[in-house]
Design brief:
Helix content of chain A: 10-25%
Number of strands of chain B: 6
Largest sheet of chain B: 4 strands, mixed
Helix content of chain B: 40-55%
Structural class of chain A: alpha+beta
Distance between the termini of chain B: 50 Å
Oligomer: heterodimer
Strand content of chain B: 5-15%
Number of strands of chain A: 6
Distance between the termini of chain A: 17 Å
Strand content of chain A: 35-45%
Number of helices of chain B: 6
Shape of chain B: elongated
Structural class of chain B: alpha+beta
Order of helices and strands of chain A: HHEEEHEEEH
Strand order of the largest sheet of chain A: 1-2-3-6-5-4
Order of helices and strands of chain B: HEEEHEEHHHHE
């Protein structure tokens, strides 16, 4: 197996959409499959979510150079300001889904901690003023199979 | 076995000297980061407009990227590098573009990051800029290890 970046995107996407919290619905109940990588398609229906990996670099404490560190950025976007509480609720579910989550399907991938969570302020013209966004970032550590396969003796 | 308690107490004057030294290192690092941000911004502005080609943006002036006074936060000294720039309506447009927004003029989602890629590019360099200042200070010259001591200490950090 040679898990690539696209495989880890698929694993994160699947975790976020399918995780079912104890007291509310999974994200897919509101988002459907509208969780996009990096940017939405044109005319995407609201609400939707964007995620990506940023700040990818070799782990600081890793002498083998096989470990990767970085951040997952997730932004949930809604339209009409009264939707803000709904969007906040969706981010609560995302937080639960990624709390201490790990998978070995793509090489060992683990979420270390929530770095930040911010409700973005109201933007002004030429931005659409009715858009509400909540953004969160998590620190992760990953031993990608596409690197660690070369460590085999 | 009873342990002897250390009687060492850093003097207030020495603590102030260390803080001043760290602050100078942070400030010089922040200035170098500001240059990197402006360089990144000018690369983006070299294109005709941000993304559509219809709205041309001028490169920023150094005065549009500010450096805050160093302050203590959770036991660490912190300096912020930020842009207070606003358009004629008082809207902080650099934030729109950095974080992403639905643009009513182009009719689509737009995002052009300047600060984050500049910080990522600069992250491997700021420790050496910081260490150079420490080494040059009178207090730093007394420390064994010189810049290497600080290059891996993570004693300072730069935030967006």
């Amino acid at each position: 197996m040679s898990a690539k970046s696209t495989d880890v995107y698929a694993a994160i996407r699947s975790r976020l959409l399918t995780f079912t919290p104890a007291v509310s619905d999974p994200l897919s109940a509101d988002l459907g499959s509208r969780l996009y990588y990096s940017s939405p398609p044109e005319n995407a229906e609201y609400p939707y979510a964007l995620f990506r990996l940023v700040g990818r670099s070799t782990g600081n404490l890793d002498d083998s150079l096989l470990e990767e560190e970085g951040s997952i950025e997730l932004t949930i976007v809604g339209r009409h300001r009264q939707q803000l509480s709904v969007i906040e609720g969706l981010m609560d579910v995302a937080e639960e889904a990624l709390l201490k989550w790990h998978t070995d399907q793509v090489g060992w991938f683990t979420i270390r901690r929530l770095l930040s969570r911010t409700t973005l302020p109201e933007f002004r013209h030429p931005a659409d003023v009715e858009i509400v966004q909540v953004r969160a970032t998590w620190r992760y550590t990953w031993w990608p199979t596409y690197r660690s396969q070369y460590a085999a003796p | 076995m009873a342990r002897r308690k250390s009687t060492y107490k850093p003097s207030a004057r020495r603590s102030a000297a260390v803080i001043a030294m760290v602050d100078k290192g942070l400030y010089e690092s922040a200035k170098a980061l500001r240059e990197e941000i402006i360089r990144t911004w000018m690369q983006v502005a070299a294109y005709p407009g941000y993304t559509s080609g219809e709205h041309v943006s001028s490169p920023p002036k150094a005065a549009e990227i500010l450096i805050s006074v160093a302050s203590s936060k959770s036991g660490k000294r912190t300096v912020n590098v930020y842009s207070p720039a606003t358009d004629e309506n008082g809207a902080p447009y650099p934030a729109f573009w950095e974080l992403g927004h639905r643009n009513v003029i182009t009719g689509r989602y737009e995002r052009v990051e300047i600060f984050r890629p500049a910080i990522e590019r600069f992250s491997s360099r700021y420790k050496s800029v910081f260490a150079k200042q420490i080494k040059a200070s009178p207090f730093g010259q007394m420390l064994e290890g010189g810049p290497e001591l600080f290059s891996t200490s993570g004693a300072a950090r730069i935030t967006e």
